[in-house]
Specification:
about 0% strand
Length: about 260
């Protein structure tokens, strides 16, 4: 059996009815720059803080939050025009605009506010302004490479998640949860980000005859949801089997480790 065959078998054993994941149920932001904010700020943290950052931006600048009839789509250039007075004043941008001082890394990372700005500037450089532009650009390697050159974006996870948020049905985010699922399914001990993403895409194509609505991004979501629940159950089981001091330690570690979709 091939790696894809093994992964498909693992999916069939564990994920259940994939027709139940309906594309229309997926949340869509009203404007592409909101996807940039989410994709950068969500890495390595609990999602509640990211959601607060995006909502505060919308409230402060009068932007629509969710895509629906009548919402106005804002462009990347409009977004950058608001940020332009803060260029190179990253601390001020973090404080006054995003009200979020998180960094891309706890050691030598830059402020996520700066990373958001540089991410958006890169998109502008490739003439990606709207959802239509992002979907047309697809998974172009030169865009991924340019974004990975931003400090803290070397893994490419933010770009992959950005594409998912933008509605790219072929996008997969090979984060910690998805990677662990793929390793369990294939028997591999390690895998690159690109190979992991490609295996999920191939698995989705393999399963599409049975599940017509299935796309790589929907399969990515199903995998992530399953793996997170699995690890939460295993963590709870482990805590219940050790002395109280050890349980308190693991409780603390679990709180630090778990996040929404920031799966590094």
């Amino acid at each position: 059996m091939t790696l894809v065959d093994n992964l498909v078998a693992h999916i069939r054993r564990n994920l259940g009815d994939l027709n139940a994941i309906h594309p229309d149920a997926v949340f869509h932001y009203a404007s592409l720059p909101l996807c940039v904010i989410d994709a950068v700020f969500s890495i390595g943290v609990r999602y509640a803080s990211t959601e607060r950052t995006v909502k505060e931006w919308c409230n402060n600048y009068g932007w629509d939050w969710e895509q629906s009839s009548g919402t106005k789509q804002r462009t990347v250039s409009e977004f950058l025009e608001i940020l332009r007075p803060y260029e190179s004043r990253w601390e001020n941008m973090a404080t006054e605009v995003f009200r979020n001082h998180q960094r891309t890394s706890t050691t030598s990372g830059i402020l996520k506010a700066e990373a958001v700005y540089r991410f958006a500037k890169t998109l502008q450089g490739f003439r990606i302004e709207t959802f239509a532009d992002a979907l047309q650009s697809g998974l172009r390697p030169e865009i991924r490479a340019a974004l990975r050159a931003i400090p803290g974006q070397g893994s490419g996870l933010s770009y992959s998640y950005f594409l998912i948020l933008a509605g790219n049905k072929s996008a997969v985010k090979a984060d910690r949860m998805v990677t662990r699922f793929v390793l369990d399914g294939t028997g591999l001990r390690s895998i690159s980000t690109e190979d992991c993403e490609n295996l999920v895409r191939e698995a989705a194509a393999n399963l599409r005859n049975q599940f017509p609505n299935l796309t790589p991004s929907l399969l990515d979501h199903a995998i992530w949801r399953y793996q997170r629940q699995k690890e939460e159950v295993e963590s709870a089981s482990c805590r219940n089997s050790i002395p109280s001091v050890g349980k308190a330690y693991l409780d603390c570690m679990s709180i630090l480790a778990l996040s929404a979709r920031a799966k590094n």
